[in-house]
Amino acid sequence: AQKITQTQPGMFVQEKEAVTLDCTYDTSDPSYGLFWYKQPSSGEMIFLIYQGSYDQQNATEGRYSLNFQKARKSANLVISASQLGDSAMYFCAMRELLSGGYNKLIFGAGTRLAVHP
Amino acid sequence: DGGITQSPKYLFRKEGQNVTLSCEQNLNHDAMYWYRQDPGQGLRLIYYSQIVNDFQKGDIAEGYSVSREKKESFPLTVTSAQKNPTAFYLCASSIGSGGEGSNEQFFGPGTRLTVL
């Protein structure tokens, strides 16, 4: 079965510094997609970044980058120049393909990031 | 503005009552999803639908029901059969099915259900 593991329940970082949030995954599918979402205290899930299993380069979106190491099955999120507004829960997720062309997301347990001034 | 709306934001229910959570999207997305989130945990899939009048059970469908009569609407009913319904419920949508491209899911603001 497919699985996402986030081993860091909580992380602290100083404002303006970079932080890496870990994510490892387990799948036997040759084609898959990996996502990171941010969940602030308001509860909504905000899409941050996507990495396809066949993408040659690591994905980047502004201050977010994904350190994709396929052989190690890891997809760590790197946030550069942390801001106070980055304090939130962060979830790693993997797309699982189902029969009939359906797909669903499998989520990790999340990492709570606290940015200190 | 395009997006997903969920109502109500907070919902209180007595044991034994059915309640329906609303989810509406104006993104013209084909696929819609319902997730449940318990404190300190990730999201778990309840039901999903890729097309009108069709839906599939997710990982924790027992005690829940859905309908998809219109493309933009995907209401979730929490029935009295759901043993522990107190949770945060999130609705999402995406352009379509398949595994090509990002096809990311966009989420609504959520409904927090509390059973008294």
What is the number of helical segments of chain B per DSSP (H or I, 4+ residues)?
0
- The helicity of chain B comes to under 10%
User: Overall 3D geometry of chain B?
Assistant: globular
Largest sheet of chain A: 6 strands, mixed
Largest interface: A-B, 29 and 28 residues
Sheet with most strands of chain B: 7 strands, mixed
Query: Beta-sheet strand percentage of chain A?
Result: over 45%
Mean of pLDDT of chain A:
94
Counting DSSP E segments of at least 2 residues, the number of strands of chain A comes to 12
Global structural class of chain A? mainly beta
What fraction strand of chain B? over 45%
Q: In terms of per-residue confidence, which ranges of chain B show pLDDT below 50 for 5 or more consecutive residues?
A: none
**Strands of chain B, total number:** 11
- What is the alpha-carbon Rg of chain A in Å? 14 Å
In percent, how helical is the residue content of chain A?
under 10%
The unreliable regions of chain A are none
C-alpha geometry of chain A: globular
Report Rg of chain B.
Answer: 14 Å
Number of helices of chain A: 0
Structural account:
The complex is a heterodimer of chains A (117) and B (116). Chain A is an all-beta fold. Chain A contains no helices and twelve strands. The radius of gyration of chain A is 14 Å and the shape is globular. The mean pLDDT of chain A is 94. In chain B, strands 2, 4, 5, 6, 9, 10 and 11 form a seven-stranded mixed sheet that branches. Chain B has no helices and eleven strands. The model of chain B has no long low-confidence stretch (mean pLDDT 91). Chain B is globular. Chain B starts with a strand and ends with a strand. Chain B has 116 residues and is mostly beta strands. Chain B has strands at residues 4-7, 10-13, 19-25, 31-37, 43-51, 54-57, 64-66, 76-78, 87-94, 106-107, 111-115. Chain A binds chain B through residues 4, 31-33, 35, 37, 42-47, 50, 52, 91, 93, 95, 97-98, 100-105, 107-110, and chain B through 33, 40-45, 48, 50, 56, 58, 88, 90, 92, 97-99, 101-110, 112.
